[in-house]
Amino acid sequence: MDVTPVDVSPRPVPESTRPRRRRLPAVLVLLVVLAAFGFVMVRALGNATMFFYNADEAVAKRETLADQRFRLQGTVVDNSVVRTGDGVSFVVAFNGVTVPVNHVGDPPELFQPGIPVVLEGHWADGDPNGAFASDRILVKHSESYDEKNPDRLKEANQGGSVTPSSTPVASVP
pLDDT digits over 111-163, tens only? Predict the structure, then answer.
């Protein structure tokens, strides 16, 4: 039997048929995605790690806090709320320590004297009164709801206004 030898030596592939390497664009896309993810994480964690101090703690650490942004917690003192041209000024108290606050912007609807609030901001620079400059107010509300208008709940359950002559026709499941 006559066997002819087979040539198994590697042959060069012509340039036109060789696949081009496209790693650089893929690496750049991956870097952009990782950078965007990192940015979002830093922003999210930055808000979550903002320091939180009660009014008495913030006053005690005033020198170390200087102009850092932090959250201040206290209860709005009665008869201290005064509307200003760009917001509201008031006083908060915690453990017998009071802090004057100058808030820029509209306060939330639930904001009123005698309720606990959390304020975001910093100590005002050069303020002789030692005021806290706030730009965000978070209001803590109670978990109990008083029924001021008992007929409204009855009306809502019946789907509209209730008059003495009206009777519910049908209930929709």
Answer: 889 889 999 999 887 665 678 999 999 886 666 555 666 666 666 666 654 45
Note the pLDDT of residue 93.
92
pLDDT digits (tens, 9 = 90+) for 60-105: 888 888 778 899 999 999 999 999 889 999 999 999 899 999 999 9
Question: CB–CB of 132/123 below 8 Å?
Answer: yes
The backbone torsions φ and ψ at residue 36, rounded to the nearest 5 degrees and listed phi first, read: -65, -45
Q: Which residue in the block uniquely carries the two structure tokens 């009777």? A: 167
Q: What is the CATH number of domain 52-139?
A: 2.40.50.140
The span from the CA of 133 to the CA of 123, in Å, is 6
At residue 86, φ and ψ (nearest 5 deg) are -120, 10
**What SS3 string covers the chain?**
CCCCCCCCCCCCCCHHHCCCCCHHHHHHHHHHHHHHHHHHHHHHHHHHCCCEEEHHHHHHCHHHHCCCCEEEEEEECCCCCEECCCEEEEEEEECCEEEEEEEECCCCCCCCCCCEEEEEEEECCCCCCCCEEEEEEEECCCCCCCCCCHHHHHHHHHCCCCCCCCCCCCCCC
Instruction: Give the count of alpha carbons within 13 A of 3, CB side only.
Output: 3
